[in-house]
Design a protein that fits this description.
mainly alpha, 6 helices, elongated
Length: 152
Amino acid sequence: MSPDQPSAAGLAASAIAATSAPTDADTADALAQLADVAGHASTVLFNYRRDNPDASDLDQALNLEMTLDKRAIDLRVQAVKLLGAQAADALAQMKDASKQVDAFLAAEKKIEGQLAIASAVIGLAGAALVGDAGGILAAVVSVHSALASAGT
């Protein structure tokens, strides 16, 4: 090996140094976006309850609405550090899932789909609050499954 060529150890050290963990700002942005989605889902369920006072699923809608409100508050207040090698991927996927849920809620008019998505958002918010990157990735899969089942 010539002196001008880097060693394998040098390449590995450079690759590790180039890989940066998500910043606190990245984490805060992802959590704020998820909090906004939880708030949006809560508002959709509130409007449903207000516009359909005789619906048979009002208790379920109210329960999900209240849970979403609490999660939105928790996400905005609690400082969460995502740990592990999957943190950057977890943040990116959480942001993507939040965008997809927001778009779904803006278009979906059937309460069944809204309830399923609201439940999945609660799971994602809970995983984000715990700060476990693997749990977030699993919850993102649940959100995507709920979106697919609801017809997006």
